[in-house]
Amino acid sequence: MALQQTMRALADPIRREILNLLKNGRCSAGEIVEHFPVTGASISRHLSVLKEADLIRDTREGKFIYYELNTSVLEDVMLFIAQLKGEEHHDEEQ
Q: Which domains are assigned to the chain?
């Protein structure tokens, strides 16, 4: 995991809100744009940053592109933060 790239992507409030939107399921780029008071080009850039950080995946269906969360990267980030807090991961022991 490129943690620095992931943290950079998570630093922006619009990108965090996009992730929050996608937790309810996949959305097309147009559906995502409708939720924000910024241009489609701006949302496209935010989506590119999230994709580069591997936080989201995209799938083309006809003329539409659908975005969804990549939960495995989010789980890696949560594990990293838990380790910073001093919490141990005990899955191997169970």
A: 3-85 (1.10.10.10)
Output the six-digit token pair for 35: 């939720």
- Cβ burial of 34 (10 Å; 0-12, 13-18, 19+) is exposed
Cα separation, 38 vs 79, in Å, equals 33
At 23-73, the pLDDT tens digits run 999 999 999 999 999 999 999 999 999 999 999 999 999 999 999 999 888
Contact 19/50 with Cβ under 8 angstroms? Answer: yes
Give the residue among 29, 59, 23, 70 at the shortest CA–CA distance from 46.
29
CA distances from 94 to 25, 66, 69, 89, 90 (A): 31, 38, 28, 10, 7
In 1-94, which residue ranges form alpha helices assigned H by DSSP? Answer: 3-10, 13-22, 29-33, 40-52, 71-84
Q: How far apart are CA 83 and CA 21, in angstroms?
A: 27
